[in-house]
Amino acid sequence: MKPRILVLYYTQSGQLRDILNSITSDIRDKADIDFVPLTPVVPYTLPWKASKFFDTMPETVQHIPIAMNPLPESIKAQHYDLVIFGHQTWFLNPSLPISSFLQSEDAQILKGKPVITVNGCRNMWLHSQEKLKEYFLKIGANLVGNIVLTDTNPNIISVLTVIRWSFKGKKEASGLLPAAGVQDNDIRRASRFGMPIFRHLAENKLGSLHKELLLMGAIHLKPGLIILERRGVTNFRKWAKYIREKGGPGAPERQGRVTFFKRLLIVAIFILTPISSLTAFIQLQLQRRSLLNDVEYFKGLDYTEGKF
Ligand SMILES: Cc1cc2nc3c(=O)[nH]c(=O)nc-3n(C[C@H](O)[C@H](O)[C@H](O)COP(=O)(O)O)c2cc1C
Fold first, then answer.
1. What local confidence, expressed as pLDDT, does residue 38 receive?
2. pTM score of the predicted model
């Protein structure tokens, strides 16, 4: 009998679905694969209205769930040998549809199952993955692999293109800027992960899968990004609390603070990022050994409390 794989995912633009299509492209005839999108009751539209985009930060950071459509009963009744869980990072956390699903009753579908996480994001995903590990521990899911596809352009370029994509809906290259998001070639090359996943599943050796995925380049991580992400997480937590003091999603009373956050984030990205990168570089020289340990940790699947 063919093994049965459930591919659960959320995607706003379709990018994550493209990545998952590629990863599974070589094993479609070898396994029975069900693709099931996780969909919010009120979808997030692309392009975003800037006000909506920034207003989504506090609840994303504090993991305050939105309403999600339930999984089909036929899927819940099915047995699966493996789950591939496609997610993305929003404001250094799992996207709100993903954290909402993971807090819902339907997340029990992951209980006792081996799960491979696949993230398609800009380039900052560490805290988001730590949160996923926490959810999986609570649910009783067994993380057996992690694949992360990022935009490999320099940080500032990927910020500019993600802004163009988010607010104008323009993913393709324009002017001097390249296309936004994960490079097409990297999405195509993700097909190389399919056969090892299938082999480890068929041979009942999922425990050794992640090691092979890492050897194949499933995760690239620059130590400097750990420093920048730690700073970002601390700041987003403060801002989320500050904005929520004035009300919930869309509350007119909090819009002043949301706008303040938006302006400061833009200043931080374009003015403070070069300074921040320089201080991060110095910190990197001083803490190289401990950061290299962190790189190993974040590439792995284990969970240790307090990494952020
Ligand atoms: C509201 C929002 C916040 C985002 N924040 C981050 C982030 O903190 N780190 C990151 O690497 N990418 C971030 N991204 C990029 C997403 O992770 C993702 O790559 C992009 O939205 C495409 O995903 P899709 O498959 O859902 O369309 C953000 C995107 C959105 C829409």
1. 98
2. 0.96
Rounded to the nearest angstrom, the distance between the alpha carbon of 90 and the centre of ligand 1 is 5
The alpha carbon of 122 and the centre of ligand 1 are apart by a number of angstroms equal to: 6
Query: Which of these, 35, 38, 115, lies nearest to 82 by C-alpha position?
Result: 115
301: nearest Cα among 176, 111, 68, 141: 141
Give the helix ranges, DSSP H, for 169-287: 184-189, 194-202, 209-215, 223-244, 255-267, 273-286
CATH, domain range 4-224+295-299: 3.40.50.360
Q: Scanning the structure block, which residue is given the tokens 């990004």?
A: 225
**Residue bearing the CA closest to ligand 1, atom 16:** 121
pLDDT, one tens digit per residue, over 202-240 is: 999 999 999 999 999 999 998 888 988 998 999 999 999
Q: What is the maximal distance between C-alpha atoms in the chain?
A: 59
Strand 4-9 vs strand 82-87: parallel, antiparallel, or unpaired?
A: parallel
166 CA from centroid of ligand 1 (Å): 9
